[in-house]
Prior knowledge:
There is one protein chain. The chain has three domains: 1-55, no CATH class; 67-374, ABC transporter transmembrane region fold; 396-634, P-loop containing nucleotide triphosphate hydrolases (Rossmann fold). The chain is built from 21 helices and twelve strands. It has helices at 15-22, 32-44, 67-72, 75-107, 112-161, 164-169, 172-214, 216-264, 266-271, 275-328, 333-374, 435-442, 465-469, 486-490, 499-508, 512-517, 535-548, 565-579, 591-595, 614-620, 623-634, and strands at 396-403, 412-419, 424-428, 450-455, 458-459, 472-475, 484-485, 525-526, 553-557, 583-587, 599-604, 607-612. Helix 8 runs antiparallel to helix 10 (275-328) and helix 20 (614-620) crosses helix 21 (623-634). It is elongated. It binds adenosine-5'-triphosphate and magnesium ion. Residues 435-436, 477, 557 line the site of magnesium ion (MG).
Amino acid sequence: MSFGPPAGSPFGGPSAASTSAAAGLPFAGMPSELADRAERILAAEPEHIVAEVPFSAAVFDREPFTLRRFLRGHRLGLLGAVALVVFETLSLQAGPLLTQIGLDRGVAPGNLEVLWWVGVAYFVSVVLNVVTSAWRVAYTGRLSERLMYELRLRVFSHFQRQSLDFFTGEKAGRLMTRMTSDIEALSALFQDGLVSLAVQGLTLVIITVVLFVLNLKLAIVTLLVVLPSMGVLTLWFRGASERGYGRVRDRIAEVLSDLSESLAGIRVITATNRQQFNVIQHANVVGEHRDANLYASTVGAIYGPANEAVGVVGQAMLLLIGGRMVLNGTLTVGELFAFLLYLTSFFAPIQQLVQLYNTYQQGQAAVLKLRDLLATEPSTVERMDAATLPPIDGRIELRNVTFGYDAGQPVLHGLSLTIEPGETVAVVGPTGAGKSTVAKLVTRFYDPDEGAVLIDGHDLRDVTLHSLRRQLGVVPQEPFLFNGTIGENIAFGRPDADPEEIEESCRLVGLGDLIDRLDAGLDSLVHERGSSLSSGERQLLALARAFHARPRVLVLDEATSNLDLLTESVIERALDVVLEGRTAIVIAHRLATAMRADRIAVVDGGRVIELGTHEDLVAAGGVYASMYDTWSAHS
Length: 635
Ligand SMILES: Nc1ncnc2c1ncn2[C@@H]1O[C@H](COP(=O)(O)OP(=O)(O)OP(=O)(O)O)[C@@H](O)[C@H]1O
Ligand SMILES: [Mg+2]
């Protein structure tokens, strides 16, 4: 049983083909000549070895993410690209120089031999240029894919490392944008941008040198006319486009998060007739995205032509000045011709650079967003010297815990509770009292602001997250199912288990009927987050998943709240078996569930206000007793 990536995943690329090769071709009856060809293609596919990706929750790159630092690791690859670029540019720029030689030494003195040589040299330079150019495109394509792969993994690992508060604080859609659209914006930069930037920059340098060599005076005039005006334009463009593209990135994030929320909440939207409202809201979000894009493209639209105008004016002036120099006899026609040719190819890279600068600014906006994202530290970090938690007996102690999700607004106030190994403690209390919060602290989804949570005397902050969570089983209040089969969902924490064990866990929680009913049994597919199952069935699956990992400590947060009374009583009995010898925290609204626990803790206002066995608490005549009275009067 494996949770490998689905075949044909969006980032699958060529691996999708090799997966279907392994699985056998998807349909029968393929004509033999086609089958032969398909087999040849598949045989030529490179082997895709499943990458061993190192992942650590605590160790990651904490330096700010910048383009330069990111590329530093690929210095050698980039150097190769630059070498190809140098060769490509040199071979391209030989043209005008050869033209000058041909005109001045071949045509003017009427020397045919020189013309022949110049022709051959021209041909060779063109062939060289085509070859290096093709090579360079393929090379940078590969390099860019490698960079994207690394970046995607890095961002994804960063998400996986974050603590719970990160995901409640950030909209899922915004995080998706970072992963998709922002990284894509960088892709354009890696693919072509950086290298073209080098090509064009280098061309400029070469041409400037050649211009100076050809004619000092003309070269100085050119630079004096062209450079200052272009410099001013570029300074303006830089500021304006940075603002513009930053806004575009923000707006894309808004569009995607609005989209993902509308899709996820479609049931509520339909039921409450909010479709039209949602369309209007989306129109606003999309409209702002359009406006941001319009602004950015207007900025580009001004910058490009303005630059071109500067270039044309420069060319006109040079024709005038250079023409006079030819008439004076201080310049040959060939030199003027070469100069003007070079000047055209001087402006071409400038135009290119303008385009590239646009791409660069877009990429830079994405880099800034990614930098912010990659700078977020998980709030529950593992200490560098964290010890491995040894196999535990399961004594849980919350010692004087004060905790709030937002600073200055504590949800738990100095809460203390000790649970002995093997004991089951039920936590009851009104809605919003802090019961789920207690569960989240015990599993170290959050760290307490004051006080400590200990297991077998170990402060949770001192042990590795992995060794802690391996010994804890959690059924959260809102169970989550993954795309895959029922079996895969149950075996989530222990994927290597054999099918009999999975089935046993299933039957234990009373899912036996469901599995017998489904044609494919354990191999039945769970659709989008389990929408094809009832919410009671989803809870049972989540229970089975928690049992299946055989943890020492189980935390059940309203794990049976969606079940009918009969199923619940089946589960209660199963629970008695499963919880035997294990420590358990059972959060329950139903007193029937709570009553079965060894002790009951009543939580209200972030404190434990009553603690004892069912009999004790009823006898004490406090809050629990009145809850019990109400409940028994109703049933
Ligand atoms: N992620 C969060 N950010 C900010 N406040 C939160 C967050 N989660 C819960 N709270 C607040 O903390 C308080 C306690 O929430 P908790 O989920 O622990 O209640 P509960 O006792 O489990 O309630 P219920 O019986 O409804 O499940 C509530 O007032 C809630 O609004
Ligand atoms: Mg709760």
